[in-house]
Amino acid sequence: MKELRTQVAIIGAGPAGLMLGQLLQREGIDSIIFERRSREYVERRVRAGVIEHGIVQLINDAGAGERMQREGLVHHGIELRFDNVSHRIALSDLADGKSITVYGQAEVVKDLVGLRYGSGAPLYFDAEVTAIEGLTSDEATIQVSTPEGDVRVSCQYVAGCDGTFGVASRSIPTSELRRHERTYPYSWLGILAEAAPATEELIYCRHQNGFALYSLRSPSVSRLYLGVRPDETLDEWSDERIWAELNVRLATEEMPSVSQGPIIERSITAMRSIVNEPMRYGRLFLAGDAAHIVPPTGAKGMNLALGDVRELFSALVAKITHNDDRLIDSYSQTCLERVWRAEEFSYYMTQMLHPLFDDEFENGVQRARLRQAITSREASTVLARNYVDLNSL
Ligand code: FAS
Ligand code: PHB
């Protein structure tokens, strides 16, 4: 069996693992990234689309923002739409001039993969981590299965950036790990379409038929979502049915229909909230979806992941370079305070915008929340500050 040694072994080449590798590399700290999927698969995966103000700064500070600055779309507001009427939330006016940038997660991943390869730092695709040992010993080891054979890696620390239900969170003894979970009674059907968006800003819509979101990726590519029942499958949704339902839910007098075009990607994603506590066990640190899941209504998934990485990077530098344990000892608690704030905001946005078909009381509460969000300056300010920069609050 091949043997490798590094300071930090990173499991997963999603935004969290790649960003951590980029930051450590710039600091001169050795790391190796292992990703079980292929490069093509990881770079093609369509997921998040909105980057918070502070996370845009992090990406730029990490030297990974050149294309994002060129191609990303800076937005200063979003729309809340219900009863076929739109209400703008002036994000920047309400949140000290801060803005969001619309730039697909797949583009962030491509940029970080390119930087990793350009630096020559090790990044292995088709390399699945199958076991993690020695987390409470003098050094940890991970086992990796690759097409060329198995690899054993000795390291000082393991960064579990392997998403939900990955080997990292499973390596924390069940006596130590507490998992908190909420599953919502709906899923999101998402499409990517070659169609110039009919809107300048994102539209979050609550319609009696269900939720809809009008987002975008570029001036010629739209990203749209429909709330659907959790048991629905893609083969129940023809292109015609998708477009017809998007038009019904999003139509207003000013925008009677969405722009249509060839659908180039489609998926259905379950809506869940998950928090794993603690986010550290010995030499193992969880970051990103390995530690938490949020329903995408608050656009927090990737932002939360990169917020964890910002914290983990500082903690590892303090320990490895200055032998200072304080930040690694407080890592889990520091992150979890921010994680629960993101869970609360995502829960608030999700509950407010997804009508229930058998609970008129809940629907009444949702409508009251929506009306407060657009009529009360205090409520819209809290929404704007959470939406535009929660990870920096
Ligand atoms: P990721 O899941 O991105 O990356 C983990 C990586 O680890 C994966 O590439 C996986 O292959 C790899 N891995 C797993 N086990 C491994 C092993 N044993 N060995 C090696 N590698 C391993 N967020 C939003 O804000 N907006 C959205 O619209 C949105 N849509 C989403 C749609 C879907 C279908 C999913 C699943 C998530 C979505 N999210 C969305 C959330 C998403 O953006 C995540 O928050 C983000 O990918 C988190 O990044 P990571 O923590 O790096 O995890
Ligand atoms: C997206 O563009 O994919 C997107 C935007 C905002 C969300 C979720 C997804 O809340």
How would you describe this structure to a colleague?
This protein has 393 residues and is an alpha+beta fold. It has a domain at 2-181 and 272-350: FAD/NAD(P)-binding domain (3-Layer(bba) Sandwich), CATH 3.50.50.60. Helices cover 37% and strands 30% of the residues. It has 12 helices and 19 strands. Strands 1, 2, 8, 9, 10, 11, 17 and 18 form an 8-stranded mixed beta sheet that branches. An 8-stranded mixed beta sheet has the order 6-5-13-14-15-12-16-19. A 3-stranded antiparallel beta sheet has the order 3-7-4. The longest helix is centred in the last third of the chain and has 28 residues, at 326-353. The relative contact order is 0.17. The structure holds arabino-flavin-adenine dinucleotide and P-hydroxybenzoic acid.
CATH topology of the domain at 2-181 and 272-350: FAD/NAD(P)-binding domain
Q: Which range does the strand content fall in? A: 25-35%
Structural class of the secondary elements? alpha+beta
The CATH class assignment of the domain at 2-181 and 272-350 is Alpha Beta
Bound molecules: arabino-flavin-adenine dinucleotide, P-hydroxybenzoic acid
How many β-strands, per DSSP?
Answer: 19
Biggest sheet, in brief? Answer: 8 strands, mixed
- Give the N-terminus to C-terminus distance in angstroms: 47 Å
In the CATH hierarchy, what is the architecture of the domain at 2-181 and 272-350 at level 2? 3-Layer(bba) Sandwich
Radius of gyration: 21 Å
How would you name the CATH homologous superfamily of the domain at 2-181 and 272-350? FAD/NAD(P)-binding domain
What count of helical segments does DSSP give? 12
Shape: globular
Q: Regions with pLDDT < 50 over 5+ consecutive residues? A: none
Specify the helix fraction band.
25-40%
Average per-residue pLDDT, rounded, comes to: 97
